[in-house]
Amino acid sequence: MKIAVLGSGSWGMTLAMHLLKNGHEVEVWFYLEKDFNQAQETRELPDYLPNVKLPLELQFTMDMKTCVSNKDIILVAIPSHTVGMTISNLSHSISKECILVNVAKGIENNTLRTMSQVISHALPNHPVGNISSLYGPTHAEEVVQEMPSTIVAACPDETSGKIVQKAFMSDSLRVYTNVDILGVEYGGSLKNVIAIAAGILAGMGYGDNTLAALLTRGLFEMTRLGVYLGAQEQTFAGLSGMGDLIVTCLSTHSRNRHVGYELGKGRKLKEILEEMKMVAEGVNTSRSVHQLISKTGVEMPISEQIFQVLFEEKDPLVAVEELMGRAPRKERHSLN
Protein backbone atom coordinates (compact mmCIF):
# COMPACT_ATOMS: atom_id res chain seq x y z
CA MET A 1 0.00 0.00 0.00
CA LYS A 2 1.05 3.63 -0.53
CA ILE A 3 1.07 5.44 2.80
CA ALA A 4 1.65 9.08 3.73
CA VAL A 5 2.75 9.96 7.26
CA LEU A 6 1.97 13.52 8.35
CA GLY A 7 4.38 14.25 11.16
CA SER A 8 8.01 13.32 11.76
CA GLY A 9 8.02 13.22 15.56
CA SER A 10 8.88 10.12 17.56
CA TRP A 11 5.55 8.36 17.07
CA GLY A 12 5.02 9.31 13.42
CA MET A 13 8.54 8.24 12.46
CA THR A 14 8.34 5.04 14.48
CA LEU A 15 5.13 4.04 12.72
CA ALA A 16 6.59 5.06 9.36
CA MET A 17 9.49 2.66 9.87
CA HIS A 18 7.12 -0.02 11.12
CA LEU A 19 4.93 0.31 8.01
CA LEU A 20 7.99 0.26 5.76
CA LYS A 21 9.14 -2.98 7.37
CA ASN A 22 5.63 -4.37 6.78
CA GLY A 23 6.24 -3.94 3.04
CA HIS A 24 4.43 -0.67 2.36
CA GLU A 25 5.66 2.34 0.37
CA VAL A 26 5.96 5.13 2.93
CA GLU A 27 6.54 8.87 2.60
CA VAL A 28 6.95 11.13 5.66
CA TRP A 29 6.04 14.82 5.67
CA PHE A 30 8.21 17.17 7.78
CA TYR A 31 7.04 20.46 9.25
CA LEU A 32 10.47 21.77 10.32
CA GLU A 33 13.13 22.30 7.66
CA LYS A 34 15.97 21.67 10.12
CA ASP A 35 14.54 18.24 10.96
CA PHE A 36 14.02 17.47 7.27
CA ASN A 37 17.61 18.40 6.41
CA GLN A 38 18.99 16.42 9.32
CA ALA A 39 16.99 13.34 8.39
CA GLN A 40 18.04 13.59 4.75
CA GLU A 41 21.72 14.12 5.50
CA THR A 42 22.32 11.84 8.51
CA ARG A 43 19.27 9.51 8.52
CA GLU A 44 18.90 10.32 12.20
CA LEU A 45 16.57 12.41 14.41
CA PRO A 46 18.28 12.39 17.82
CA ASP A 47 15.82 14.87 19.37
CA TYR A 48 12.97 12.40 18.79
CA LEU A 49 14.48 8.93 18.39
CA PRO A 50 18.01 8.82 19.83
CA ASN A 51 20.36 6.14 18.48
CA VAL A 52 17.93 5.10 15.74
CA LYS A 53 18.96 4.96 12.07
CA LEU A 54 16.24 5.87 9.58
CA PRO A 55 16.05 3.41 6.65
CA LEU A 56 17.29 4.65 3.27
CA GLU A 57 14.07 3.36 1.68
CA LEU A 58 11.98 5.77 3.76
CA GLN A 59 10.96 8.79 1.66
CA PHE A 60 10.93 12.32 3.12
CA THR A 61 9.24 15.49 1.87
CA MET A 62 8.16 18.98 2.93
CA ASP A 63 5.46 19.16 0.25
CA MET A 64 2.36 18.15 2.16
CA LYS A 65 -0.11 18.11 -0.75
CA THR A 66 2.15 15.95 -2.90
CA CYS A 67 2.72 13.66 0.08
CA VAL A 68 -0.98 12.84 0.53
CA SER A 69 -1.90 12.61 -3.16
CA ASN A 70 -2.73 9.14 -4.51
CA LYS A 71 -2.20 7.42 -1.17
CA ASP A 72 -4.19 4.47 0.20
CA ILE A 73 -3.68 5.49 3.82
CA ILE A 74 -2.79 8.83 5.42
CA LEU A 75 -1.38 8.55 8.94
CA VAL A 76 -2.09 11.74 10.91
CA ALA A 77 0.70 12.07 13.49
CA ILE A 78 0.75 15.82 14.21
CA PRO A 79 -0.21 17.63 17.46
CA SER A 80 -3.96 17.46 18.07
CA HIS A 81 -4.47 21.24 18.03
CA THR A 82 -3.15 21.38 14.44
CA VAL A 83 -5.19 18.51 12.99
CA GLY A 84 -8.29 20.46 11.92
CA MET A 85 -6.49 23.24 10.07
CA THR A 86 -4.00 20.86 8.46
CA ILE A 87 -6.58 18.42 7.12
CA SER A 88 -8.83 21.24 5.97
CA ASN A 89 -5.97 22.64 3.88
CA LEU A 90 -5.60 19.23 2.24
CA SER A 91 -9.28 18.69 1.48
CA HIS A 92 -8.81 18.86 -2.30
CA SER A 93 -5.81 16.51 -2.26
CA ILE A 94 -7.34 13.56 -0.39
CA SER A 95 -9.39 11.01 -2.32
CA LYS A 96 -12.59 9.60 -0.81
CA GLU A 97 -11.18 6.08 -1.07
CA CYS A 98 -8.24 6.98 1.17
CA ILE A 99 -8.38 5.84 4.80
CA LEU A 100 -7.20 8.43 7.32
CA VAL A 101 -5.61 6.93 10.42
CA ASN A 102 -5.26 9.40 13.28
CA VAL A 103 -2.80 8.82 16.13
CA ALA A 104 -3.02 12.29 17.71
CA LYS A 105 -4.67 12.09 21.14
CA GLY A 106 -6.76 15.01 22.29
CA ILE A 107 -10.10 16.80 22.42
CA GLU A 108 -10.20 20.06 20.49
CA ASN A 109 -10.58 23.13 22.70
CA ASN A 110 -13.89 25.00 22.39
CA THR A 111 -15.45 22.70 19.73
CA LEU A 112 -14.90 19.74 22.10
CA ARG A 113 -14.56 17.37 19.14
CA THR A 114 -12.54 14.17 19.22
CA MET A 115 -9.89 13.84 16.51
CA SER A 116 -12.04 11.71 14.19
CA GLN A 117 -14.79 14.33 14.53
CA VAL A 118 -12.26 17.08 13.80
CA ILE A 119 -11.13 15.26 10.65
CA SER A 120 -14.70 14.58 9.55
CA HIS A 121 -15.56 18.26 10.03
CA ALA A 122 -12.51 19.26 7.98
CA LEU A 123 -13.48 16.77 5.24
CA PRO A 124 -17.30 17.00 5.14
CA ASN A 125 -17.56 14.90 1.96
CA HIS A 126 -15.20 12.15 3.11
CA PRO A 127 -16.86 8.85 4.14
CA VAL A 128 -16.99 8.63 7.95
CA GLY A 129 -16.18 4.93 7.63
CA ASN A 130 -12.80 5.85 6.14
CA ILE A 131 -11.70 7.79 9.22
CA SER A 132 -10.10 5.84 12.06
CA SER A 133 -7.96 6.32 15.16
CA LEU A 134 -5.09 4.09 16.26
CA TYR A 135 -4.72 4.28 20.05
CA GLY A 136 -3.26 2.13 22.80
CA PRO A 137 -0.44 1.65 25.33
CA THR A 138 2.40 2.16 22.87
CA HIS A 139 5.39 4.38 23.62
CA ALA A 140 7.46 5.03 20.50
CA GLU A 141 10.68 4.35 22.42
CA GLU A 142 9.64 0.70 22.86
CA VAL A 143 7.76 0.09 19.60
CA VAL A 144 10.82 1.26 17.64
CA GLN A 145 12.82 -1.47 19.42
CA GLU A 146 10.13 -3.99 18.44
CA MET A 147 9.16 -4.79 22.02
CA PRO A 148 5.83 -6.70 22.05
CA SER A 149 3.02 -4.12 22.10
CA THR A 150 -0.72 -3.95 21.47
CA ILE A 151 -2.91 -1.26 19.97
CA VAL A 152 -6.50 -0.83 18.76
CA ALA A 153 -7.66 0.38 15.35
CA ALA A 154 -10.96 2.14 16.00
CA CYS A 155 -13.26 2.68 13.04
CA PRO A 156 -17.08 2.71 12.68
CA ASP A 157 -16.71 0.66 9.47
CA GLU A 158 -15.47 -2.87 10.17
CA THR A 159 -14.04 -3.33 6.68
CA SER A 160 -11.89 -0.21 6.93
CA GLY A 161 -10.87 -1.18 10.45
CA LYS A 162 -9.62 -4.53 9.21
CA ILE A 163 -7.63 -2.82 6.43
CA VAL A 164 -5.90 -0.68 9.06
CA GLN A 165 -5.38 -3.74 11.25
CA LYS A 166 -3.72 -5.65 8.41
CA ALA A 167 -1.52 -2.71 7.43
CA PHE A 168 -0.07 -2.28 10.94
CA MET A 169 -0.11 -5.84 12.32
CA SER A 170 3.30 -7.47 12.82
CA ASP A 171 5.12 -9.95 15.05
CA SER A 172 5.88 -7.17 17.53
CA LEU A 173 2.71 -5.05 17.21
CA ARG A 174 -0.61 -6.81 17.72
CA VAL A 175 -3.54 -4.76 16.40
CA TYR A 176 -7.15 -5.19 17.55
CA THR A 177 -10.22 -3.56 16.00
CA ASN A 178 -13.12 -1.73 17.66
CA VAL A 179 -16.12 0.01 16.09
CA ASP A 180 -16.58 2.21 19.19
CA ILE A 181 -14.32 4.98 17.93
CA LEU A 182 -15.70 7.49 20.45
CA GLY A 183 -14.83 5.24 23.38
CA VAL A 184 -11.35 4.57 22.06
CA GLU A 185 -10.70 8.28 21.46
CA TYR A 186 -12.07 9.45 24.79
CA GLY A 187 -10.05 6.80 26.60
CA GLY A 188 -6.82 7.66 24.81
CA SER A 189 -7.31 11.39 25.33
CA LEU A 190 -8.69 11.62 28.86
CA LYS A 191 -5.99 9.38 30.32
CA ASN A 192 -3.42 12.10 29.54
CA VAL A 193 -5.05 14.34 32.15
CA ILE A 194 -4.85 11.56 34.74
CA ALA A 195 -1.21 10.98 33.74
CA ILE A 196 -0.42 14.58 34.65
CA ALA A 197 -1.98 13.86 38.05
CA ALA A 198 0.19 10.72 38.38
CA GLY A 199 3.29 12.78 37.70
CA ILE A 200 2.27 15.38 40.26
CA LEU A 201 1.85 12.66 42.92
CA ALA A 202 5.27 11.19 42.07
CA GLY A 203 6.86 14.63 42.20
CA MET A 204 5.33 15.23 45.61
CA GLY A 205 6.80 11.98 46.88
CA TYR A 206 3.62 9.93 47.27
CA GLY A 207 3.80 6.16 46.83
CA ASP A 208 2.06 3.16 45.33
CA ASN A 209 -1.13 3.39 47.40
CA THR A 210 -1.82 6.91 46.18
CA LEU A 211 -1.06 6.02 42.56
CA ALA A 212 -3.34 2.96 42.67
CA ALA A 213 -6.16 5.12 44.03
CA LEU A 214 -5.61 7.67 41.27
CA LEU A 215 -5.66 5.10 38.45
CA THR A 216 -8.79 3.40 39.78
CA ARG A 217 -10.80 6.55 40.38
CA GLY A 218 -9.36 8.24 37.29
CA LEU A 219 -10.54 5.39 35.09
CA PHE A 220 -14.02 5.73 36.58
CA GLU A 221 -14.04 9.46 35.75
CA MET A 222 -12.93 8.77 32.18
CA THR A 223 -15.64 6.15 31.76
CA ARG A 224 -18.36 8.32 33.25
CA LEU A 225 -17.71 11.20 30.85
CA GLY A 226 -17.17 8.96 27.83
CA VAL A 227 -20.43 7.09 28.32
CA TYR A 228 -22.32 10.35 28.83
CA LEU A 229 -20.94 11.51 25.46
CA GLY A 230 -22.01 8.34 23.64
CA ALA A 231 -19.19 5.83 24.13
CA GLN A 232 -19.58 2.24 25.30
CA GLU A 233 -18.63 1.53 28.91
CA GLN A 234 -16.70 -1.68 28.18
CA THR A 235 -14.31 0.13 25.82
CA PHE A 236 -12.68 1.85 28.81
CA ALA A 237 -11.62 -1.53 30.20
CA GLY A 238 -9.62 -2.07 26.99
CA LEU A 239 -6.33 -0.98 25.46
CA SER A 240 -7.11 2.71 24.93
CA GLY A 241 -8.72 3.02 28.37
CA MET A 242 -7.16 1.02 31.18
CA GLY A 243 -4.18 -0.09 29.07
CA ASP A 244 -3.14 3.37 27.94
CA LEU A 245 -3.89 4.80 31.37
CA ILE A 246 -1.50 2.36 33.05
CA VAL A 247 1.41 2.93 30.68
CA THR A 248 1.05 6.72 30.55
CA CYS A 249 0.78 7.09 34.32
CA LEU A 250 3.66 4.75 35.14
CA SER A 251 6.21 5.22 32.36
CA THR A 252 9.13 7.61 32.44
CA HIS A 253 8.67 7.89 28.64
CA SER A 254 5.38 9.73 29.25
CA ARG A 255 5.49 13.45 28.43
CA ASN A 256 2.28 14.08 30.38
CA ARG A 257 3.64 12.36 33.46
CA HIS A 258 6.82 14.42 33.08
CA VAL A 259 4.83 17.67 33.12
CA GLY A 260 3.03 16.54 36.26
CA TYR A 261 6.24 15.40 37.94
CA GLU A 262 7.85 18.80 37.45
CA LEU A 263 4.71 20.53 38.73
CA GLY A 264 4.80 18.28 41.80
CA LYS A 265 8.36 19.44 42.38
CA GLY A 266 7.14 23.03 42.47
CA ARG A 267 8.01 24.27 38.99
CA LYS A 268 5.72 26.48 36.87
CA LEU A 269 3.88 25.09 33.85
CA LYS A 270 5.21 27.74 31.45
CA GLU A 271 8.87 26.95 32.07
CA ILE A 272 8.24 23.19 31.90
CA LEU A 273 6.57 23.44 28.49
CA GLU A 274 9.17 25.84 27.11
CA GLU A 275 11.97 23.31 27.58
CA MET A 276 10.09 20.39 26.03
CA LYS A 277 10.74 19.43 22.39
CA MET A 278 7.51 17.41 22.04
CA VAL A 279 3.90 18.13 22.96
CA ALA A 280 2.23 16.98 26.18
CA GLU A 281 -1.33 16.60 24.89
CA GLY A 282 -2.86 16.38 28.35
CA VAL A 283 -2.36 20.10 28.99
CA ASN A 284 -4.71 21.22 26.21
CA THR A 285 -7.01 18.25 26.87
CA SER A 286 -7.36 19.36 30.50
CA ARG A 287 -8.84 22.64 29.26
CA SER A 288 -11.29 20.75 27.03
CA VAL A 289 -12.28 18.45 29.91
CA HIS A 290 -12.96 21.49 32.09
CA GLN A 291 -15.21 22.83 29.31
CA LEU A 292 -16.99 19.47 29.06
CA ILE A 293 -17.55 19.36 32.82
CA SER A 294 -19.10 22.82 32.68
CA LYS A 295 -21.25 21.85 29.69
CA THR A 296 -22.45 18.42 30.82
CA GLY A 297 -22.38 18.60 34.62
CA VAL A 298 -20.58 15.25 34.75
CA GLU A 299 -18.72 14.90 38.05
CA MET A 300 -14.93 14.59 37.51
CA PRO A 301 -13.22 15.82 40.70
CA ILE A 302 -9.70 14.64 39.82
CA SER A 303 -9.75 16.18 36.35
CA GLU A 304 -11.16 19.42 37.69
CA GLN A 305 -8.40 19.67 40.28
CA ILE A 306 -5.77 19.10 37.58
CA PHE A 307 -7.25 21.94 35.51
CA GLN A 308 -6.96 24.23 38.53
CA VAL A 309 -3.35 23.21 39.15
CA LEU A 310 -2.43 23.78 35.50
CA PHE A 311 -4.29 26.99 34.75
CA GLU A 312 -5.14 28.58 38.09
CA GLU A 313 -1.83 27.87 39.86
CA LYS A 314 -3.51 25.88 42.59
CA ASP A 315 -1.15 24.27 45.09
CA PRO A 316 -1.08 20.51 44.34
CA LEU A 317 -1.09 19.77 48.08
CA VAL A 318 -4.37 21.68 48.47
CA ALA A 319 -5.80 19.74 45.51
CA VAL A 320 -4.93 16.43 47.20
CA GLU A 321 -6.40 17.58 50.50
CA GLU A 322 -9.65 18.59 48.83
CA LEU A 323 -9.94 15.26 47.00
CA MET A 324 -9.28 13.28 50.18
CA GLY A 325 -11.72 15.45 52.14
CA ARG A 326 -14.73 14.85 49.88
CA ALA A 327 -17.92 13.48 51.45
CA PRO A 328 -17.94 9.68 52.02
CA ARG A 329 -19.85 7.48 49.57
CA LYS A 330 -20.27 3.91 48.30
CA GLU A 331 -17.77 2.55 45.80
CA ARG A 332 -19.14 1.99 42.31
CA HIS A 333 -17.44 -0.15 39.67
CA SER A 334 -20.00 0.36 36.93
CA LEU A 335 -22.27 3.15 35.74
CA ASN A 336 -25.29 0.81 35.81
Describe what this molecule looks like in 3D:
The protein has 15 helices and 8 strands. It is an alpha/beta fold. It has 2 domains: 2-179, NAD(P)-binding Rossmann-like Domain (Rossmann fold), CATH 3.40.50.720; 182-324, N-(1-d-carboxylethyl)-l-norvaline Dehydrogenase, domain 2 (Orthogonal Bundle), CATH 1.10.1040.
Give the total of beta strands.
Answer: 8
Rounded to an integer in angstroms, the radius of gyration calculated over CA atoms is 19 Å
Amount of helix = 40-55%
Largest sheet: 8 strands, mixed
Architecture of the largest domain in CATH? 3-Layer(aba) Sandwich
Number of helices: 15
Which structural category fits the helices and strands?
alpha/beta
Short description:
By secondary structure, the protein is α/β, with parallel strands linked by helices. The chain has helices spanning 10-21, 33-42, 64-68, 83-89, 115-122, 140-143, 158-168, 181-204, 208-228, 239-250, 255-264, 269-274, 281-296, 301-311, 316-324; strands at 2-6, 25-29, 59-61, 73-76, 99-102, 131-135, 149-154, 173-178. Strands 3-2-1-4-5-6-7-8 form an 8-stranded mixed sheet, with helices on both faces.
Keyword list:
single chain, 336 residues, alpha/beta, Rossmann fold, N-(1-d-carboxylethyl)-l-norvaline Dehydrogenase, domain 2, 15 helices, globular
